[in-house]
Amino acid sequence: MLKTHDLTYTYAGNGPSFRFPDLSVAPAEACLLLGPSGAGKSTWLHLLAGLLTPVAGSTVLAGTDYARLSGGALDRFRGRNIGLVLQRPYFLQALTVKENLLIARRSAGLAPDKAGALHVLEQLGIAHHADVRPGRLSVGEQQRVTIARALVNRPQLILADEPTSALDNRNAARVSDLLRQRAADLGAALVVVTHDQRLKDQFDAVVELRPSTHQENY
Ligand code: ADP
Ligand code: ADP
């Protein structure tokens, strides 16, 4: 279960300030964060990912307020509990697809699990690319590898920032379906950020950010 309370962030200098609506996302629930460009969606997702530290408020997952963690403790918590899918695929290009998944386990302090990694690649229909370097795959395939890597540690929370923005319509629909299915199978809470209103119907809960969020009128 993910729960946030009074999550607030201010960019340094004269940067904008945000106070985000409280979120509560249950295991296997899929939540969509919607809003126009500039509304603060990426900022919100980075706070949920522990990549930015809020100036106030809490982000609680499995009883731990990880907004209060830092350094190695935060890295370990994130590696074990949070799967991240960002807008564009990002990999260690010198490694194969399977090795990229195994590294994700190792950096979270988990034991290697080749069978588990292959199983996830199978679930995403890309097991035949396990020994290929990701740079040789199509963008759609690469985004599936990114999702596989986000799932491989069996996280309790999966976060995705415009995960289909680089894909054509057909691939976007497939990748979006896979993400929701696999998250539900794992019993993970899923939070997807998008500006694409068309995705609304596919989610259990929708939270809309207005463009004026940074005037703190929530
Ligand atoms: P969205 O994802 O909804 O498009 P963002 O969270 O990326 O919105 O950005 C929200 C606002 O915060 C924008 O006005 C943006 O210019 C501003 N912003 C983002 N990053 C920074 C930064 N590092 N420093 C100052 N302002 C920033
Ligand atoms: P399916 O839904 O395809 O039947 P499951 O998700 O129930 O598969 O998992 C089957 C087996 O594969 C389990 O024993 C589990 O340990 C392993 N497995 C599945 N997903 C992962 C993963 N992300 N990381 C490691 N092992 C996994």
Automatic annotation (TrEMBL):
<protein>
    <submittedName>
        <fullName>Putative ABC transport system ATP-binding protein</fullName>
    </submittedName>
</protein>
<dbReference type="InterPro" id="IPR027417">
    <property type="entry name" value="P-loop_NTPase"/>
</dbReference>
<dbReference type="GO" id="GO:0016887">
    <property type="term" value="F:ATP hydrolysis activity"/>
</dbReference>
<dbReference type="InterPro" id="IPR017871">
    <property type="entry name" value="ABC_transporter-like_CS"/>
</dbReference>
<dbReference type="InterPro" id="IPR015854">
    <property type="entry name" value="ABC_transpr_LolD-like"/>
</dbReference>
<keyword id="KW-0067">ATP-binding</keyword>
<keyword id="KW-0547">Nucleotide-binding</keyword>
<dbReference type="GO" id="GO:0005524">
    <property type="term" value="F:ATP binding"/>
</dbReference>
<dbReference type="GO" id="GO:0005886">
    <property type="term" value="C:plasma membrane"/>
</dbReference>
<dbReference type="GO" id="GO:0022857">
    <property type="term" value="F:transmembrane transporter activity"/>
</dbReference>
<dbReference type="InterPro" id="IPR003439">
    <property type="entry name" value="ABC_transporter-like_ATP-bd"/>
</dbReference>
<dbReference type="InterPro" id="IPR003593">
    <property type="entry name" value="AAA+_ATPase"/>
</dbReference>
<comment type="similarity">
    <text>Belongs to the ABC transporter superfamily.</text>
</comment>
<dbReference type="Pfam" id="PF00005">
    <property type="entry name" value="ABC_tran"/>
</dbReference>
<feature type="domain" description="ABC transporter">
    <location>
        <begin position="2"/>
        <end position="218"/>
    </location>
</feature>
